[in-house]
């Protein structure tokens, strides 16, 4: 190739490259313009087609922002709530099946029931509480509300209940005289119809059932201390009979279902029990004396104060109930503390522990008030290896502390 031919070839390549660059530049520019144009036309047509003015658009976006803020606020509150509830949930054991049982506790929001639920939950079981809140309180159980093993059902056991469980602790019944005398017919229904419903449920699903009976089945006893084979001395038409006879029919029903329908029953005859979460106005001797002492009112003794009682601390009772449920023993078992005190001794002890300025006064005795009450617990010792451990003074101190807190909560509210 000549020298002039070479220059010509270089110039052609240069011009071709320049043209190519220009074409690419215009193409990109054109595409950018096109896209912008389409977007603005789209926005315009959207505004036109939906008749949304600029003002309306602005208002909508402001409302949108308010909703987003509210949502964020709710999220924050949920996080705070989750934190505050889970913080108070007590630790529970991990149990695997078949050790882990599904357990129903009727009356589980009451004094005894809520303590029993605490231990069953801590031991790793799945617990369902059924309660109509006649005397029980949700606050006795609120520390379990967010636990996956816990369920609370608002239900009156006079009506049938359909549920699948392995064990039933049947505790639902008013227990203090003012409560069970408030509606005697309902007390009888709860102990008769309610117990039939629980035994019928146990029969259908093959569950074991423990019925909470009472030392009141011995009435005003003529045998002392009271063994389980003593049949009792109950006035069937007196003011306490709705409860005493209600519990006697509950026991009769239990053994009828055991014999006729093969239901596995356990019957606990519970003697006076005390401890935190007792209803401070339940009219029983422990709560009456503690409240009167804390308020520096006179401590009232019905009768001459020589009648006797024995008092078990709640932890001991719960231990006995669980041992009985899981034992092979199916006849009634007394659960109570055999240490016996006259009511006057008991009033003096509480007065001294509280340390107020109350005086002790005596008023007329109460109709059908049992004169002597003390359990013979040889059966519980032999069959369950159970014996109460908490000394009266220690238990009373804890109970008085609880009553003090309840009173200051009431004053604050
Ligand atoms: N605490 C004692 O000293 C003592 C002594 C002897 C027997 N007992 C028996 O132990 C059980 C528990 O007594 P407590 O001291 O915890 O009494 P409580 O009044 O504190 O508890 C009873 C619970 O049963 C619930 N209940 C009552 N009727 C119901 C119904 N129809 N349906 C559903 N729930 C109902 C109440 O709301 C309450 O939560 C009772 O059966 C009682 O007879 C207790």
UniProtKB/TrEMBL annotation:
Alphabetized InterPro entries for the sequence: NAD(P)-bd_dom (IPR016040), NAD(P)-bd_dom_sf (IPR036291), UXS-like (IPR044516)
Membrane topology per record: Single-pass type II membrane protein
Lineage top rank: taxon: Eukaryota
GO biological process: D-xylose metabolic process; UDP-D-xylose biosynthetic process
Domain NAD(P)-binding: 104-398
Pathway stated in the Swiss-Prot or TrEMBL entry: Nucleotide-sugar biosynthesis; UDP-alpha-D-xylose biosynthesis; UDP-alpha-D-xylose from UDP-alpha-D-glucuronate: step 1/1
Gene3D superfamilies: NAD(P)-binding Rossmann-like Domain (3.40.50.720)
Family assignment from sequence similarity: Belongs to the NAD(P)-dependent epimerase/dehydratase family. UDP-glucuronic acid decarboxylase subfamily.
Record's protein name: UDP-glucuronic acid decarboxylase 1
Source organism (scientific name): Tetranychus urticae
């Amino acid at each position: 190739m000549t020298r002039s031919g070479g220059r010509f070839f270089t110039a052609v390549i240069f011009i071709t490259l320049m043209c190519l660059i220009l074409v690419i530049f215009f193409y990109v520019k054109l595409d950018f313009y096109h896209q912008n144009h389409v977007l603005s036309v789209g926005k315009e047509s959207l505004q036109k087609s939906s008749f949304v003015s600029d003002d309306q658009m602005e208002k909508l976006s402001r409302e949108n922002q308010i909703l987003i803020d509210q949502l964020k606020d709710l999220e924050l509150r949920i996080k705070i709530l989750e934190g505050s509830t889970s913080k108070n949930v007590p630790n529970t054991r991990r149990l695997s099946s078949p050790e882990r049982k599904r357990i129903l506790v009727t009356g589980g929001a009451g004094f005894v029931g809520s303590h029993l639920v605490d231990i069953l939950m801590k031991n790793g079981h799945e617990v369902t509480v059924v309660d109509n809140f006649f005397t029980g309180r949700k606050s006795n159980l609120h520390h379990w509300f967010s636990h996956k093993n816990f369920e609370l059902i608002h239900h009156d056991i006079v009506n049938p209940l359909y549920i699948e469980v392995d064990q039933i602790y049947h505790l639902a019944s008013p227990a203090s005289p003012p409560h069970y005398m408030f509606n005697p017919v309902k007390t009888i229904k709860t102990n008769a119809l309610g117990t039939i419903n629980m035994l019928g449920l146990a029969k259908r699903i093959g569950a074991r059932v423990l019925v909470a009976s009472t030392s009141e089945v011995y009435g005003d006893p003529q045998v002392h201390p009271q063994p389980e084979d003593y049949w009792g001395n109950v006035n069937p038409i007196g003011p306490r009979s709705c409860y005493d006879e209600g519990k006697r029919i509950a026991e009769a029903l239990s053994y009828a279902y055991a014999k006729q329908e093969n239901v596995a029953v356990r019957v606990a005859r519970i003697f006076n029990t005390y401890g935190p979460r007792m209803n401070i106005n339940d009219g029983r001797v422990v709560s009456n004396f503690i409240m009167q002492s804390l308020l520096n009112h006179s401590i009232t003794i019905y009768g001459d104060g020589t009648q006797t009682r024995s008092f078990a601390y709640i932890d001991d009772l719960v231990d006995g109930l669980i041992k009985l449920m899981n034992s092979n023993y199916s006849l009634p078992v007394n659960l109570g503390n055999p240490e016996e005190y006259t009511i006057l001794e008991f009033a003096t002890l509480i007065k001294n522990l509280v340390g107020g300025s109350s005086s002790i006064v005596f008023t007329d005795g109460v109709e059908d008030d049992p004169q002597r009450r003390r359990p013979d617990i040889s059966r519980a010792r032999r069959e369950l290896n159970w014996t109460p451990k908490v000394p009266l003074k220690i238990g009373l101190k804890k109970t008085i502390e609880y009553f003090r807190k309840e009173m200051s909560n009431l004053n604050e509210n």
